[in-house]
């Protein structure tokens, strides 16, 4: 009886080690979770929302307009931000009188449902996104620490 119990314990412990190793590898290389903090992405994302992040896609997928990205804060490496891509490398953008214009086209931001989240009383901002950079904004334009404050973010 003692040998069978020992074998069951070894099998059980081995299974636990394999599962934990798989979870660590999954969290490190494929999928991770992030909890949204703050209201800068309202109405799309709210404080406390949990996101599953496909870590592997950053290697194979190009970042594009409207993508939601998670990145390290330029001022605090221990803090992550969640923002939306507004313009990518080489694109010309401007924010004026509540309108977002990219490459001369007034963009339809259908992900912002309500005027409460659109630009209010902002100075004109414009530029051309440098190579290997993106320009990011929070969906809640009036309550977001984003590229208007910290500039372009590297795609590397």
Task: Please describe the topology of this protein.
Blueprint: H1 2-29, E1 31-35, E2 50-54, H2 57-60, E3 68-72, E4 80-88, E5 92-96, E6 99-102, E7 105-106, E8 125-128, E9 133-137, H3 147-150, E10 153-154
Antiparallel strand pairs: 1-2, 3-4, 4-9, 5-6, 5-8, 6-7, 9-10
Task: Explain what this protein looks like in three dimensions.
The chain is 23% helix and 29% strand. It has 156 residues and is an alpha+beta fold. The protein has a domain at 63-154: Umud Fragment, subunit A. A hairpin with a 7-residue loop joins strand 3 and strand 4. The chain is elongated and about 75 Å long. The chain starts with a helix and ends with a strand. The mean pLDDT is 84.
Biggest sheet strand line-up: 3-4-9-10
Strand tally: 10
Task: Summarize the main sheet.
Answer: 4 strands, antiparallel
Indicate the CATH topology of the domain at 63-154: Umud Fragment, subunit A
| Poorly predicted parts | none
Residues in β-strands, percent: 25-35%
Structural class: alpha+beta
Overall geometry? elongated
In round numbers, the mean pLDDT is 84
Continuous helix count = 3
C-alpha end-to-end distance: 58 Å
- Helix residue percentage: 10-25%
Instruction: Please give the CATH class of the domain at 63-154.
Output: Mainly Beta
Radius of gyration: 21 Å
Quickly give the CATH architecture of the domain at 63-154.
Ribbon
Order of helices and strands: HEEHEEEEEEEHE
In CATH terms, the superfamily of the domain at 63-154 is Umud Fragment, subunit A
């Amino acid at each position: 009886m003692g040998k069978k119990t020992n074998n069951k314990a070894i099998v059980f412990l081995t299974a636990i080690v394999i599962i934990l190793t798989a979870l660590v590898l999954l969290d490190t290389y494929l999928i991770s979770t992030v909890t949204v903090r703050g209201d800068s992405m309202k109405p799309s994302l709210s404080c406390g929302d949990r996101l599953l992040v496909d870590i592997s896609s950053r290697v194979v997928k190009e970042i594009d307009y409207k993508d939601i990205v998670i990145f390290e804060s330029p001022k605090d490496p221990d803090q992550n931000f969640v923002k939306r891509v507004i313009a990518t490398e080489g694109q010309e953008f401007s924010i004026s009188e509540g309108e977002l214009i990219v490459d001369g086209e007034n963009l339809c931001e259908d992900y912002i449902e309500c005027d409460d989240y659109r630009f209010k009383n902002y100075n004109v901002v414009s530029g051309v996104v440098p190579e290997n950079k993106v320009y990011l904004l929070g969906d809640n334009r009036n309550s977001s620490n984003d590229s208007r404050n910290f500039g372009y973010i590297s795609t590397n």
